[in-house]
Amino acid sequence: MKDIQTLLERGAEVQYEDQKEAAFFPDPNLEQLIRELLDQPRGALWVSNLSVIHELYGQERSITSLEGIHHCYQITVLDMSHNRIEDLSPLAELKDLHELYLDDNQLSEISDLSLLRAPALISLKHNQISDLSPLASLKTVSLLYLSHNEISDISILRGVLSLDTVNLEGNPLDLSPGSETMQIIEELMAKGVIVKY
Hints:
Blueprint: H1 2-9, H2 28-38, E1 55-57, E2 77-79, E3 99-101, E4 121-123, E5 143-145, E6 165-167, H3 180-190, E7 194-196
Parallel strand pairs: 1-2, 2-3, 3-4, 4-5, 5-6, 6-7
């Protein structure tokens, strides 16, 4: 690049290809959100410019895909509530993500959340989630908002040791006295966990 600059300074006409990597977001609504945040209405979105994004709020944007979000690798807070997202695999590379809000989407499968390194808050209210087993590997999550899903088995929550609060309202839980679910809820509450059910 220094040689090219020298030639340009001497008045030479030089054609060269910039080695910057362009980010691609297949979902036009997600791309538009990124462009608005960067105040860049057109032109290539360079990966090197996306590192300034630490918080991304994209509620009610009709976003269906998070593909490309891994380019925003510095994100610590991501709120994509009230969209139409089904696939969480693009989140796997967001290693610094601490707060994740995906309320009111079309989620039924959350296995990719097990790859997150250190989330403290996960909110998945109003989805179609039934299997909580991917949450077992999350050692830092303290706030879990899981209301209005299809959850009937909460046994996995016994192993989430950092849990402070969990909201399970509106799920098909067996809340009859002596049920396994009630035993788990009582165990959690005995440990000081705030449980809403």
